[in-house]
Alpha/beta hydrolase
Amino acid sequence: MPEVIFNGPAGRLEGRYQPSKEKSAPIAIILHPHPQFGGTMNNQIVYQLFYMFQKRGFTTLRFNFRSIGRSQGEFDHGAGELSDAASALDWVQSLHPDSKSCWVAGYSFGAWIGMQLLMRRPEIEGFMSIAPQPNIYDFSFLAPCPSSGLIINGDADKVAPEKDVNGLVEKLKTQKGILITHRVVEGANHFFNAKVEPLMAECEDYLDRRLNGELVPEPAAKRIR
């Protein structure tokens, strides 16, 4: 798995990158938790997500947001980190111009950044939001949410309480033309201590079903003229 350095908006960004053997393979970008609370691209969940996509033939990248590891710049409360993620996707796409689709997976703070990236990039056709924090971050920009995806959280999460995540899910589920899948890991806290295995089993099941053409949203009803 090559270590890479690429240019970001605030200087160089450090990542781990695994290209697919297939030129037209989809791209997956994995986004890590909050930089000021110990989040890095080497977080266990980020690492496992990276390999999940890689094993399924994706061209895969995880990277450190600005100020983390060898990535330059200073923490920017989300705005700069979103620009970092966009630059990361640009960089992978420049190496894989035949790739037509992309997935984004984010954990905690990374889930918030990932959903914002989703709004900006129409080529993102699937997402995974792991332990998003609608009680802390504003998700109202998802109007409408452009792609189907998975939202997954633990029922013992005190950082992002279950009722807040449920509220976000219910809001997104009302939209036509996309399908929001919601999974809850029993007994899991925000860090999925001793629960990473069931978390990854849910993520793998969701991705496999999407890749098999399942979980297709109902088409929006046509207006009668």
